[in-house]
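>> received
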Amino acid sequence: MTISNLINFIDRHTNNGAIYPNEPWGEEVGVKEEGIAFVRSFSTGDWLALRNLNLKEKSNFWIECLIHLLDEAYTEEARQMIINIALTGTEENFFDAMECIRSFRRDVDIYTWLKLKNRASQISSSRLNNKSNNC
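>> returned
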């Protein structure tokens, strides 16, 4: 199954999320292309399995690598998954995903864009509350 291959691929590359280079994939273009090929070969079942994967168990760097592969795959399903990560992931995942979403902002429907803006507001409020509690 392709989703298992992608998970194992990212796990190997990130040592299960323990490796934190400056940039996902670094200079390893061939490695990145292999990951993109996995994403592009996804079936409908693979996309469903990816959406149902408990990403909260994965490190932020692992998710960042996934986001970059999805963005480079440049498919509608990949874009929808990036949006899903932005809406359901950690704050860091949100910002990583939003960097990619900006490139296809015009293709995002208004309802989804409003949900993303709402999530951004929630994150901002949370950060402000945390700041005021620490002072």
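>> The chain has a mean pLDDT of 86.
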